[in-house]
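We close this part of the discussion by returning to an individual protein. Part of our work consisted of pairing the sequence of a single chain with a tokenised description of its backbone. No coordinates are needed to read the tokens, only the vocabulary itself. The amino acid sequence and the backbone structure tokens for this protein are reproduced below:
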Amino acid sequence: MAEPQKKWSFSKAFAGIFSRSEPITDDTWDELEVALIGADFGLDITEELLSELRDSVIRYGINDVRQLRELLRDTVTEKLACFDSTLRLTEKPAIVLVVGVNGVGKTTTIGKFARYLRNFDKRVLIGAADTFRAAAVEQLATWADRAGADIVTPRSSGQDPASVAYETVSKALSENYDVVLIDTAGRLQTKNGLMDELSKIKRVIEKLAPISEVLLVLDATTGQNGLSQAESFIAHAGVSGIVLTKLDGSAKGGFVLSVQRTTDLPLKLVGQGEGIGDFTGFTSHVFAQQLVG
């Protein structure tokens, strides 16, 4: 599913370093270290990148900051490309469980993802299994309508989330949908009861059909704090990939490397604006280009 990628406002952190042609100095390395930390690469990855870049500068005889930018871009691309960002949607229906804490943009992400899939003529069914918040169901129904997707909502207030998920998958199987997107409640990693409920939803769905993807939604503006969310969800939901939201106002895209390194999870989708069409698949070289400049 290839489509044009939109530009993000990441590279401001590096603009002062790479804006002019000049020799690489000790100040260059100091400024680059500050920029990498500011972009939320984290201390370990920042040190690793700087070490590799210094070695490459010596090996290839590089002495111009613009060449250093190209080298940084290529190095970041290589590290991001170690993870397979391909969405596994080959089953019919392909069932996608969407998880994440409140406030990361999960409901919006599902609406945008549905629209993204509709652009490829996929029949999409959404399951509103976040029954703990009535407003969540209403919001999701609005997004489903905007995306041109169908939706299964609770038959009564407080209906068991797992039963809503079960009904959604049953409908998808009987009516030949291509993709099923299951919403879940925003779950704080310290609330074991809610995590148990998430595991229950997963077990109930798998009685009917295999789950193709479990996507964890992370907010780009949270930076390294997203790591603690990721680790808990992986343990309870078998997360297979990450969706990064709110890229349009963030310069913290570097934490993607930390998340992937820590969790061994690929970034698969990105949301970089408020519009329903502001959503794309992840491509490592494009991300690195927009991150570094």
Remarks:
- The beta strands are 94-99, 124-128, 150-152, 179-183, 213-219, 241-245, 267-271, 279-281.
